[in-house]
Write a structure and sequence with these properties.
Largest sheet: 5 strands, mixed
CATH class of the largest domain: Alpha Beta
Number of domains: 3
Order of helices and strands: HHHEEHEHEHEEEHEEHEHEEH
CATH superfamily of the largest domain: Periplasmic binding protein-like II
Structural class: alpha/beta
Shape: elongated
Number of strands: 12
Helix content: 40-55%
CATH topology of the largest domain: D-Maltodextrin-Binding Protein, domain 2
Number of helices: 10
Radius of gyration: 25 Å
Strand content: 15-25%
């Protein structure tokens, strides 16, 4: 049976909101939770939790104790995990975020090799084209395509990420092929309905285009583009086979701006102690992307 510190129990109560919820979470009795909290309050000489028949809330001292010890608890957990990992098989959970297409096409094969090598490590992958707040969501790592990583994160560049303005031959047969940026005003755009600079297409000034389709997923923009619904700006890794086969045609290659290409970054929150399992996954991802870059050059 796992032994819990008073700090573990206190934060379990804070997170669960009730003694009953904390007891269920930790797998110990309600009375054991109550006794340990009482012991902690006696030791500190202050009431941390104000309890009534209907609700529980933190006292002023409890709020201070909770805020000041949260990071300490996480650091202690990481140190203990580091010792466990260093003395035996690598294990534990790694939470990772990545965009849908990039995750499926480039990241997932690398994760499969990592999990095969370290079968007791649980990789918890979230695929979304929205930008995830790593700290708020409790993520260990994220892989992002961007021109510049957001401040407050530690970033490691993995690869270049060329983007291509493109359309299907069927669409171009109906609407004509744009030869200049100004010509795009006569065409239909397929764009992401997410905030950020992705829809600027790397052009110094993108004319107003009639919007034919919006989505929060690059994969659905890709499908719409293949279906002849309009012009899109898509990552090269997503459409390389389509360009080679002629299913999509690259447009305006000679006039793309400096922001046309982005880079793929491995980012993580700042942490004083990085668990060994996370460090090894980072190494595996860096090596995997380096190998793919070498094959393309």
């Amino acid at each position: 049976m796992k032994t819990y510190t008073d700090l573990d129990i206190f934060h379990a109560v804070v997170d669960a909101g009730t003694f009953t919820g904390a007891a269920r979470q930790l797998g110990i009795t309600h009375s054991a939770i109550s006794k340990r909290i009482a012991h902690l309050e006696q030791r500190l000489g202050a009431q941390l939790l104000i309890r009534s028949t209907r609700r529980m809330r933190l006292s002023e001292a409890g709020q201070l104790y909770a805020s000041e010890t949260r990071e300490l608890q996480e650091r202690l957990r990481n140190v203990e995990q580091e010792i466990v990992e260093g003395s035996g098989a690598l294990k534990g959970r790694i939470r990772l975020s990545c965009s849908n297409a990039l995750g499926k096409l480039q990241v997932m094969p690398l994760l499969m090799r990592f999990m095969e090598r370290y079968p007791e490590v649980i990789v918890d992958l979230t695929l979304t084209d929205a930008v995830v707040d790593l700290v708020h969501e409790g993520m260990d790592l994220a892989i992002r395509s961007t021109a510049k990583p957001e401040p407050g994160l530690i970033a490691r560049r993995l690869a270049t990420n060329p983007r291509v303005i493109c359309a299907s031959p069927e669409y171009l047969a109906r609407h004509g092929t744009p030869r200049s940026v100004a010509d795009l005003a006569e065409h239909v755009s397929l764009i992401l309905n997410l905030p950020g600079g992705f829809n600027a297409w790397g052009l110094t000034s993108l004319p107003e285009m009639r919007c034919g389709f919006l989505s929060n997923s690059l994969e659905t923009l890709h499908a719409a583009c293949l279906g002849g619904r309009g012009v899109a700006c898509l990552p090269y890794y997503l459409i390389a086979d389509d360009l080679a086969s002629g299913r999509l045609i690259s447009l305006l290659e000679d006039i793309r701006g400096d922001g046309a290409d982005t880079s793929i970054f491995l980012v993580r929150p700042e942490a004083s102690i990085l668990p060994r399992r996370v460090r090894l996954l980072m190494d595996a991802l860096i090596a995997g992307f380096d190998a793919e870059e070498a094959q393309r050059t």
